[in-house]
Description:
The chain starts with a helix and ends with a helix. It is α/β, with parallel strands linked by helices and 226 residues long. 35% of the residues lie in helices and 31% in strands. It has helices spanning 2-34, 107-119, 128-136, 199-223; strands at residues 43-45, 66-68, 82-87, 91-103, 125-126, 143-156, 162-176, 179-193. Helix 2 crosses helix 4. It folds into 2 domains: 1-35; 45-223, Rossmann fold (3-Layer(aba) Sandwich). The chain contains 4 helices and 8 strands, in the order H-E-E-E-E-H-E-H-E-E-E-H. The longest helix is centred in the N-terminal third of the chain and has 33 residues, at 2-34.
Amino acid sequence: MQSAMKTTKTTAVSAFRSSAGALFVAVAMAGCSVLPSPPARPVHYDFGPGTMVPVPTDRRAPRPPLALADLEAPGLIEGSTAVLYRLAYADARQLRPYTQARWSRPPAQLVQQHLRDQLGQHRAVLTTESGAAQARAGGKLPAVLRVELEEFSQVFTSATESAGLVRLRATLAEPAEAGEILLGQRVFIVQRPAARADAAGGTQALAEATHQVAQELVQWLEQMGR
């Protein structure tokens, strides 16, 4: 009788241990499945590896040198690389940042570099400092181009349709002893449709809009005789 009871007790203990072991494994596996995964890294965008700048084919004489001042972006947070968008169908006044998308550099720097690339195809593009140095060396101080980036965002007109919007103000001035002489000013506004309703589509549309703005700026300067 005692032997039978002992056997039953041993079997019960073994069953309990097996159940406890299985429960521990299940809890451990469940714990692994709920562990927080590392946060996804934002995707970084730029205007591409220079492929948007065509090879010059114009055989005319080079245009006169031009001093390009540092581009200002009064509507953007200084140093921010956020990719911004607006929901025109909800609240067009609110700029919203994508959480998982960034520019490789602040937009003002990307736009300025692209403008420099376009302008530099047929002329020397200087900084305001190097232009002043040229004047001290005996050369004529070049005209100064100042650019303000007033809008640089992806604008959604619906949940599935959007466009890259670039608006900049260009001011051309000629240095003089008493300051600068205004030669002309113009606001450029360009929209390019986005192929996709996301950050990838928006950044591509903004790159294309910037390229078109740069071309229009070059044409305007030529019309101004510069």
